[in-house]
Structures
1.
Amino acid sequence: MERFIQVIVDGIATGSIYAALALALVLIFRSTGVVNFAQGEMAMFSTFIAWGLYAGGVPLGLAVLTTLVLSFVAGLVIERGLIRHFEGGEELTLVIVTLGLFILLNSLAGWIWGFGNRSFPSLFGDSTFTLGGVQLSVESIGIVAVLIGVVGVLFLLFQRTKIGLAMRAAALNPESSGLVGVRVGRMLMLGWGLAAALGAIAGVLVAPRLFLDVNLMGSVLIYAFAAAALGGFDSAIGAVIGGWVIGISENIAGTYVDFIGADLKILVPLAIIFVVLLLRPSGLFGTREVARV
Amino acid sequence: MSDRTLRMVGLGALVAFALLVPFLFGPYRVGQFTLVLAYAVAALGLNLLVGYNGQISLGHGAFFAIGAYTAALLIEKAGVHYLLTLPAAGALTFVLGYLFGVPALRLRGLYLALVTLGLAIATPQLIKRFDTITEGTQGMTVEQPESPSWLPFADDQFLYLLALLVAVIMFALAWSLMRSQVGRAVKAVRDGEIPASTLGINLASTKTRVFALSAGYAGVAGAMYVLAIGFVAPEAFTVTISLAFLAAIVVGGLATIVGAVFGALFIEFVPVYASDVNDALTGVIYGGVLILFMYLLPDGAAGLLRRLRDLVVRRRAVEKGRRPAVASPGPRVPAGRT
């Protein structure tokens, strides 16, 4: 039983990381209707920057904060400099462009930092404590706390501030928002900036659990996609719950189903995406799409 | 010179070059061109799906891998004649593509991209997992075809010409299919699902069949690849190869038949030269090219050639003081797509 609870808690912790990346996907999807295939690689790139700062002698906390700011700015620049030219175009074009960004960032990171892997320190240290016979790591609790904090901040931003209102308006109806004075372009940039910073958080959280290399986020991105698909691509709360469900089921399958083991865990999110999209294409919390001719 | 003659001259030049390759270059280079032919077939298959049908697959490397392993296992473990492995690989991947496509293609294009990307990422792990059959990480050496004694060719020349024959068949099939009623239905689905369905086109079945066909092309290409290389290992089938196929069709030109050749040349020769500079350069070029082509040249190399041809045709027409013949009746995508 203790082992089972352990597996669940671990699942919630990894699930929180998937949820963070899934939130970044949702943020961009909601504001621009783009599914950003480069989200994971942007996060990987950010994590390398944090690692570079840390290795250069900057204290870890400060290195991560600096990285968040840099990632935010990079997100703004990517939206304005690249994505803006294709917005409102075809889905296929945007998928190809974000995939191009995916390959580009992956290779650039390899060029700059090499293809080897390195260890990345945890923000929360590696101590553990026992609660009711279950051994819990401070890191797991920290990850969940960070996610909850992030969700809280996003909630306040979108529901309680004027900028958040403007961002929601720009996403809902760009034309009308433009007419009432919302700077739609700026709001889209802001969405990408926030998503990039969120991705950086996910990267910094996941890197200590895996090794930091250029393919750090490859499978994490699939898990995040599964989380977003499960929760509904336009629902923030769906992304969080989706992330947790994916994290827990991945861990249970990896521990208890021999055939799957550690190697084939990746099949779990794939199967989940399949089932969800067949039974309920708009996810658990998403809005149904209605096509107009 | 009319539009049609110009096109025929271009095609003739391409075919003549393709026939001369094994006699112009040394064995190493000929081997590279054999691979180009395999990639061209895979890219063509992907283009049927992406360019003509508007579906996005990022997982064609998986079908390519299945084709490759099918051929390798049939030759090495079952002693099947190499010629039979090509249709076998094609048929198996066609069926698998169909089974995969039945649920996947009821989803919108975006989700298909997600699922297939997952498939591409899982492929090397799946190959390693079934190491009792696939020999896992160490890979398998596969006996390559030898030139029959009654033919005056060296082995590498024979292999190339064999691949050329297969490629020509696959290209002719795709070309005639896309000009037929089926092809029009496939394009109609891409240009608007709801209008297409009101015309009586069964969306799900059309999409599933194109997906299966496209997977079948990738399977045949995988078998060609094994015959050309004589070796299979999981490392060859990472997500990179799926993305390379996508880069190939974007560079060659979406929804063009001949574009697959240009794209295949691109993905075979760019890594060869780029890796001399830096291991990461190939990826930087692929990524940069995907973005730049979508920005500047969304109809790829084939589209560029078509525009040049239009230019020549129009200028000559103006010189003769008459209006140009119907300019470019071919498929013009994606510039004209909505």
2.
Amino acid sequence: MRFLGCFVVLAIALRAPAPPASLIVSAATSLTDALDDVAKAYGAAGGGEVRFNFAGSNVLARQIVNGAPADLFISADETQMEVVQKAGLIVAGSRVDLVGNQLAVVASPERASRVRDRFANAPAEIRRLAIGDPAAVPAGVYARRYLEAQGLWKAYEPRVVPTANVRAALVAVETGGADAAIVYATDLAAARTATIAFLVPPDIGPRIVYPAALLSSSSNQAEARRFLSFLIGRDAAAIFARHKFIPLASR
Amino acid sequence: MNLWEITAFTVVTALTATALMIPPGLFLAWLLARRRFRGRLLLETIVSLPLVMPPVATGLILLLLFSPRGPLGRVLASAGIDVVFTWRAVVIAMTVMGLPLFVRTVRAGIEQVDRRYEAMASTLGAPPLRVFYSITLPLALPALAAGAVLGFARAIGEFGATIMIAGSIPGVTRTLPVAIYTFAETGRDREAAILLGVSAAIAFVALWLSNHLSARAGLRT
Amino acid sequence: MIALDLRIEQGDFVLQVRERLEERAVVLFGRSGSGKTTILDAIAGLRTPSAGAIALNGRDLFNAARGIDLPPHERHIGYVPQDIALFPHLNVRRNVLYGSRRGQTLSLDTVGSILEIDALLDRGVGMLSGGERQRVALARALMSAPEVLLLDEPLAAVDLELRRRILPYLERVRDALAVPILYVTHDRDEARRFADRIVVLDRGTVVWSGTSADFAAIRSDPRDPRASA
């Protein structure tokens, strides 16, 4: 009988009204801090409430393809955006390249200058190089592409430590598990001791783009469009730049 | 996002999930402990599946079922109930992931109950349902409590299925493990460390309590 | 009262019994392992025979040919098994009243005073002595308004002194209450003292049946199952 009571209470609770509709933006985890600031600025400029669903871009893409209700998708790489686009789930013509990023080679402060000097011409001095798993993590894919373009992949391949995400690569350097790591420039905000040995210039490194698009499943197209135009506006660009992203869509 | 809010939200949803586990969990545990029927092994395997499947895969299955286009999601949506990306999705993920532990513990507890008591109750005129709630259930109560606490602990720690079907929306669906992951990912080590401590403390107390209750129920753990 | 026609595969032998039990107090007598308890279980519905039929007062409890197999809770049988099995989480009163829901023919006052358990009603069952447990189990079975009482070795677990004290209670139930009793024992004296009729069982078959007076006249023979204990 007691259990029946629980059931009744739960049945009532489950019928409680959903929170008032606000935009849901599925966005890559690496954008967390920047987008929180953008949403604040959007609210200050008279925009409505925006809620973010932050996760790895591959998780977000899978959610959208399987019918999860989101209004906007901001991916950390083009591959995952293409998955959603191929499924016919984005509003035609709404896709924009929102921001860019660049790679950074990082090391502990005492090793930083040495890594900068030797990275290209004496790879043997760097015993372990941490990068996101090139098989799955976008940052790892970019790192490998960069090393290949520089003709360094063969030299570093046996000494690569693949990590589950960029953050783990940073930690590997900070704990001494690796001599150097290749991460996004924007990740340095999360670093405690690791410092930049050198930034990979955007024209040399791989093209790293965060595309954004409206989702056709959105039940709130007008508001989603408003937020998207705010994202590509000048105020948002300033915020992205402050977080070390390269604004690409600024008008 | 307030750490206290994250903790409170996680505890409340985990308690709700635990309450939801109990009615179907009791029935399944009783069925597996006391009935011999065709497909019993199959049922047992299905119930235990979330224990060994990658949680993300379980989450994906739940997403397919409960998305607005999915078979269950469509029915609920027509009744005005959204699931995906709401707290209900958190509760569903927690319930499904906690249920196997609950069922296994309670099942072992029911198997410990001497069947002679049930046989006597039935000769005294009690139909099967009365035998269950007046004899089997009270005698298996310590195991029921142990199973509920264990299911609760699993619910508190649920990550993979939650992030799939509920996402990580601050203030709406962000639970302790999801918050820990996000904080660690974005370099907020202090927040991550605090929540890690909270999570470990809850898990420790719950497991200790569950083991204590299991010992009282005479179960090996 | 009870019409038995049973066939039950029982480990190393096949139990096969065909008897009409009409008397007020019938004793099933035989050494342990002869199939006595199996018969009680089959009547109570705790064990399903492979063939045959069981009828109680003209009502089919089990009939293989007609596909009848009433569940235990519909059989109206009072069963006191050898190991008693009082519910450990209920006190004496709630144990005794557990079966009283299906309609009472006897009041708690009557049963309580006959079995002298009035003073025990609010105790936990863990606090009872062996003889008290036996009487509470008897009261519990009686309060469920049974059409027949099945007693499995009610005195086997108690010492000689206790036996002397409990047997009178059983006789009171037999004489004061109109509930027929089927009584299982391997004790000759008990059988002779309690029964109107004695059925002797050996390896699943009835080897002798008669009045207790006839039974008493049988000379002890170590190879005769009637004499065994």
